[in-house]
Predict the 3D structure of the following.
Amino acid sequence: MKRKFFAYPYIVWMILFIAVPMLFIFYYAFNVDGTWTTERFLSTISDKDTWSVLWRSIVMAFETTAICLLLGYPIAYILSNMKKSVAGFISILFFVPMWMNFVLRTYAWSAIIEYAIPDLFHVENTLTDLPGGKTIAVLLVMVYDFLPFMIMPLYNTLSKMDKSLIEASRDLGADGLTTFLRVVLPLSVPGIVSGITMVFVPSITAFTVPELIGNGDYSLYGNKIEQAFKSGNISGYSVGSTLSIVLLILVIISTVIMNRFDKDKEGGSIL
Amino acid sequence: MKQIASFFRKFLKGFGSISRIVWKQIKGPMKYFYLGLMILFLYLPIIYLIIYSFNVFPANRRGVISYKNLGKWNGFTFDNYGKVFTNKTKEAVLLTLEIAFASSIVATILGTAAAIGIMLMKKRTRTAVLSVSQLPMVNPDLVTGITFMMLFEFVSMLLAKLGGARVNDFLRLMIAHISFSVPYVIFSVTPRLKQSSDMLYEAALDLGCSPLKALWKAVIPDIMPGITSGFIMALTMSLDDFVVSYFATDKLQTLSVLIYADTAHGNIGVNPALATIIFIPLVAMLVGVNVRRLAKEREYEIQNKKVKMKKV
């Protein structure tokens, strides 16, 4: 028996449950009651509301990613410079919350924003009552949820970095800041890139956080897709599928941009 | 004008050196302060839930306890811990564990076999298979979830036409969870396979093993670390999943889906004791793993010292 055959069960599985399900998005976007038409598709993407929500989600995802990077980079950098045994322990502390049920953690934040903060500071209004406050609250919780995903790849890259390069740079007369900007930062680009991909794409599609924090009346792009599919009728499927196609195009674009920055990527890549 | 400029430059220089001295003094404590602050930020909601798990929650007129108001302290009690495992929660926890273990075992077997096969394929086929395998990793969870929802609904519709039943919920969850975790197994086994030499397999054959026995006795033990980490990754992904299960399942609820159903749309909320019950074993496990690793490292250090001393 050839060992190549070992892959065949998986290939069948992959076709049935990874490739074929993807085709359903295109089926439901362009097929209404058995006939192929672009009418539904066009009417969904010409809806102004779709684009305004998409834009809001992209802005939100950008802000989340930027704040996660700004908060996470120093953490990863400090950890990578610590003694290995200490860093190992502290880094675990940063990753434990990831294992805790994320819906439960988001729910806790909604309680903190709703009850704990107003109680503590003796204010009548909660953050979500203020104009624009919901956006800030959602952003806060999104940053909270995705921060570990930014720290992890950054920490991996930074701790693998050859420390003698930094010493060499200092020996050649560069000060701390120059060494950081010219040596450490360029070498950590792969970590930054994978951190950004791990935060940006999931935060565009996040629907749990806006739903729980915004108490149901703040929606991002993910919420629109979720509502379309959970509406229970077949026209919802076509709207949701169309929205998903737009989303996939966006994901492909951002993956292509990110791959540009990441030179030494292993394995097969889609594009 | 020139004087002002030079004064300004001197001032900046002076300021720079002063700030550098100050920075050196506060750099160490600042680091720990920042790390501490961030750890506090990450644990704040968990601590909050654990504190409120000891709160008294009054029942309403119909006897239903609402856990929604997590802001009012009504007194200390252990009652919530007695009430945490309602039938619904018990079922959800069991289902989550069943799905997690069963799907990870299947995914590990499927993925390891696939990795062994893929390595021996022609380059073009290999790239094609690996590219499609990346789909669930690159795709947003939301898209993976809705594609499963559409697939299962479509198949159920076909089955209904043939007079059959709908697709079973347990099966739906199993298929979805296996599918999104297999790629992680493949991508953690393939690097190990690349490191391991094919000679090992050849040698086992030369020494009289059957091909299957050679795989089992020579190849598998060599790539075991990759398989283990793949299994753990699959388990984590499955336990942690909310989005895919939410769309894939019809009526059965995993723990995350149950929590979401109870908390979203202004529902009764979740018994905060659940947070403690999830959190404590998690911490115990991670501390256990860490202590063992630290002990190993320490042992290694001591041995290294001994070697050095002998050399001297």
Notes: Chain B has eleven helices and no strands. The longest helix of chain B spans residues 2-52. Chain B has a mean pLDDT of 84.
